Amino acid sequence: MKSDQFVARYGPWALVAGGSDGLGMAFSMFLAQLGLNVVIVARRKAVLAEAACSITKKHPVQVRTIEADLGDSESRDRLFLSTQDIDVGLLVYNAAVIPIGRFLDIPAEKHAAAIETNCMGPVSLVHHFANRMSARGKGGIILMSSMSALQGTPLVSTYGATKSFNLILAESIGYELSASGIDVLACAAGPTLTPNYISTKPDSSRRPPTMEMTPEDVVAETLNSLGSRRVLIPGKLNRFFSLIMSRLLSRKQAVSLIGKNMYRLYGPVSEK
Ligand SMILES: NC(=O)c1ccc[n+]([C@@H]2O[C@H](COP(=O)([O-])OP(=O)(O)OC[C@H]3O[C@@H](n4cnc5c(N)ncnc54)[C@H](OP(=O)(O)O)[C@@H]3O)[C@@H](O)[C@H]2O)c1
């Protein structure tokens, strides 16, 4: 889609929830390059300011930053008030809490925080902004899912389950909202070289380098797919891997293979 068509369909404002760093920042930058004004939502003020500055240096669009914790319902309500005066035509829900470790070793509150940010956050923002898009008869929604949504993924159990939630939510509302002119896409990304991903890898030599993508490549493919499909696995190699896992292995075998790899990557956690 050409950038003027993209702006007409998904403008004039995009809101990137979790848009100041990593994949979210890549979305914010790419959308600004396409000509959309961008609202960036995140918690850390300094990172937000830096993100806004680097976008406005490169692209002649308006950027609004909003400090909010998407895992907190009062904070989300304040976000709705701070965006009442603008038409958000594209919502990208990118923020996520990612507890890593054995399920029982992670405090219950951390699992709850992941569900609040990764599930309640998108439900609440989609409900609010899609209602307004529906009244205008157009818009777009992108929910960040993950390849860990496609089968059980040991050591990120709750996170993977929240990402399945996003995938199913996107597919379901994608069908419902198409009648209102709203395109919905779940992006089931594989390993992506964001600062957060890099920092959570204890041993970089154990990473599968051939599967890793840059945030910019993931974002370009995702924005290209909006309107033409409801679920995207970015990257040919990731799609091939997912095909092998789903067609050639039983679910139990697939989970075992992924579990072994996760324990290898995130050692010294020992398998029980
Ligand atoms: N990186 C990967 O390998 C990978 C693979 C598959 C899927 N994904 C998905 O892609 C998305 C982004 O991943 P990423 O690696 O880019 O993550 P990230 O580096 O942690 O960035 C997340 C962004 O969200 C913001 N954020 C996090 N929690 C927030 C909260 N409670 N309230 C408001 N803002 C919040 C962060 O800013 P603040 O910290 O300042 O709030 C940051 O701007 C996630 O949904 C993840 O599940 C990533």
Structural features, described:
By secondary structure, the protein is an alpha/beta fold. Helices cover 51% and strands 15% of the residues. The chain contains ten helices and seven strands. Helix 5 links the parallel strand 4 and strand 5 (139-146). Helix 2 (22-34) crosses helix 8 (215-225) and helix 5 (108-136) runs parallel beside helix 6 (157-177). NADP nicotinamide-adenine-dinucleotide phosphate (NAP) binds next to helix 2, strand 2, strand 5 and helix 7.
Q: How far do the termini sit from each other?
A: 50 Å
Mean pLDDT across the residues is 94
Helix proportion? 40-55%
| Rg of Cα set | 18 Å
Order of the strands making up the biggest sheet:
3-2-1-4-5-6-7
Low-confidence stretches: none
Number of strands: 7
Largest sheet: 7 strands, parallel
Bound molecules: NADP nicotinamide-adenine-dinucleotide phosphate
Number of helices: 10
Q: What is the chain-wise order of helices and strands?
A: HEHEHEHEHEHEHHEHH
| Beta-strand residue percentage | 5-15%
Secondary structural class: alpha/beta
Large-scale geometry: globular
